[in-house]
Write a structure and sequence with these properties.
Elements (H helix, E strand, L loop, with lengths): L7 E4 L9 E4 H4 L5 H10 L3 H11 L11 H14 L22 H17 L2 H29 L2 H4 L1 H21 L8 H14 L2 H18 L4 H18 L5 H25 L4 H35 L4 H7 L5 H9 L1 H20 L4 H10 L27 H21 L4 H9 L7 H13 L21 H16 L7 H17 L10 H18 L16 H4 L2
Antiparallel strand pairs: 1-2
């Protein structure tokens, strides 16, 4: 047996436990029978004879001893009872661990016991003061985050669902760091990195930086670490938040993980050198550990957590938008089949709108994908829209202006319904509902007004009946799409789309939307509006650029002899 005394063994005849004798283990344990071999060698000096006798005798030996578990357990308990507690007194000033020397497991256990004894010896007043100080720090951090949310991140509290999800994420992160922050793992960096990247993807980088810094401080205090730990955690998480940005491939997150790992390693080495910790025993292993945890966190995020973050918080990364931008999407294929003119219009709008959005540092890819789907409602009644009519007579010729307006406006609601049926994200549905805002269907409104003036029995035309239901654009991206959609359609009606006419057209439409209040709720500034105008003008001028007319290009109808050939 590997347990118990390895030198001596207590033996007694079966049924007579009182008749005990103590023997050396090597004399009674069969094993390889080396004890028997030594006895034979002592009685016969010839090694050859001893070997032959031993080889003949060894197979015939049978076990004569068996382990008595009950007696062994009882003897062990009696031995434990005879051991008295050993108390080693330490006086103030005694060294528990020497500076510059690696901490052994015995030293760590001694330091932990000393800390517990010190904490236990504190008076009630000191304990209460310490708890109140910790609570006060947590309340101050909570107040800071709350003020920031009220001022800059009201979207977080505009929905109870979003608020509860965020609160649950904070609680889960703290719980995981407490479990992972043990001395054996020291993996508290993983939950903090996942938290920081999640908030950065779901909201804004500024919010992620503030919340992660506050949470890092809470974690450091909770697991009993110091300022050096806070510096390492905060440096790694801040690097991940600043680098994560637009995610157009899963390799982007791996790249972020490598960079964060390098920052964490270098920060750990720097802090360790400043703290004069042993480099090879403490600093280097910790640096490697933090680097590996950083890479592992980004692998977890890219491997399966990213789609969950998008679904829970209702956000779309560039990676998911690129998947939606595939022209093989069923809705886009149906749009090509039913309304090819609308599809071509959507593609052109997407191109000029993406460039305009990027000119003001908005999400150009989101605008491009939104433009692909913004007019899908037209596929239900394609013949009522001019881009799908060709040279045929307009179906609106047989309808009154009010009915034509209802059909035109209905494509917004129809598009939103189709998008929901195909489970498009809410961000794209917002583009469908907001790309016309509450603008006026001017053509049919003026037509109705003219008919009302010539009809003696006609009443006053209600302008509200000829407006889209809205809402107005709520984001800069939606405002850019509204302008791009309007100028692309209007530019097709220009007889000679010269740069000057295109510039005048774009400016007139932008001013009309501005004065109509369509940009009141999206946060678009006048400077950004001017930048968007310039981008749209450049894009449309490039589309309608002039072409050289060669003097010898004449139609074959000018040559009668060729027609008869």
């Amino acid at each position: 047996q590997k347990e118990g005394n390895q030198k001596e063994i207590v033996v007694f005849p079966k049924g007579k436990p009182e008749d005990r004798h103590v023997y050396n283990v090597g004399d009674v344990i069969l094993g390889d029978a080396q004890g028997l071999k030594r006895r034979l060698g002592a009685e016969n000096p010839s090694p050859e004879v001893v070997e032959r006798v031993f080889d003949w005798l060894r197979p015939q030996l049978i076990p004569t001893l068996s382990l008595n578990n009950d007696e062994t357990r009882r003897a062990r308990d009696e031995a434990n009872a005879r051991v008295h507690e050993v108390v080693t007194p330490f006086e103030p000033g005694d060294l528990l661990a020497r500076a510059g020397q690696p901490l052994t497991s015995e030293s760590m256990e001694l330091l932990e016991r000393e800390h517990k004894a010190l904490t236990k010896g504190l008076g009630v007043l000191k304990r209460v003061c310490y708890s109140l100080a910790t609570l006060g720090m947590f309340v101050a951090l909570l107040t800071l985050c709350g003020v920031y949310v009220l001022a800059y991140e009201r979207r977080l509290i505009s929905s109870m669902r979003q608020f509860l999800i965020m609160l649950g994420l904070v609680i889960v992160t703290v719980g995981l760091t407490m479990l992972a922050g043990t001395d054996s793992l020291r993996a508290e960096l993983i939950p903090l990195l996942l938290f920081g990247m999640t908030v950065s993807i779901a909201f804004h980088q500024e919010s992620a930086l503030l919340f992660s810094a506050a949470l890092s401080l809470v974690v450091v205090v909770s697991i009993g670490q110091g300022l050096d730990e806070f510096i390492i955690l905060n440096a790694a998480v801040a690097t991940a938040i600043l680098l994560v940005g637009p995610i157009r491939s899963r390799w982007k997150l791996i790249y972020v993980g490598v960079c964060v790992g390098l920052v964490a390693m270098l920060t750990t080495i720097g802090v360790g050198v400043l703290e004069e910790q042993p480099f090879y025993q403490e600093v280097l292993p910790d640096a490697v550990r933090f680097g590996l945890w950083s890479l592992l966190a980004t692998i977890v995020m890219s491997g399966g957590l990213l789609p969950l973050v998008e679904r829970v918080f209702g956000v779309q990364t560039d990676l998911s938008l690129l998947e939606l931008a595939d022209i093989s999407h069923p809705l886009l294929q149906e749009l090509v089949r039913r309304a090819p003119g609308t599809y071509n219009h959507s593609i052109n709008v997407a191109s000029i709108a993406e460039a305009a959005a990027e000119s003001i540092h908005a999400r150009g890819l989101l605008v491009r994908v939104g433009a692909y789907f913004h007019d899908i409602g037209k596929m239900l009644k394609p013949a009522y829209f001019v881009e799908n009519q060709g040279n045929d007579n307009s179906r609106h010729d047989t309808l009154v202006p009010a009915m034509s307006t209802l059909i035109i406006i209905a494509h917004v609601k129809d598009g939103a319904d189709l998008a929901r049926q195909h489970h498009l994200p809410e961000a794209l549905i917002d583009f469908i509902q907001q790309h016309h805002g509450t603008t006026l269907v001017e053509y049919f409104y003026h037509l109705a007004s003219e008919r009302s003036e010539t009809d003696p029995d006609g009443g006053e035309v209600e302008e509200s009946a000829f407006r889209y239901p809205g809402p107005k654009p709520q984001t800069k991206e939606a405002a850019v799409l509204m302008l791009a959609d309007a100028v692309e359609g209007a530019s097709r009606a220009l007889a000679e789309p010269t740069p000057a006419r295109i510039e005048s057209l774009v400016h007139d439409i932008a001013m009309k939307r501005l004065l109509d209040g369509q940009f009141d709720e999206c946060g678009l500034t006048l400077r950004e509006l001017a930048t968007v105008e310039d981008s749209l003008i450049k894009s449309l001028t490039a589309v309608y650029h002039g072409r050289i007319k060669y003097p010898d290009q004449r139609s074959t109808s000018s040559y009668p002899e060729q027609r008869t050939a």
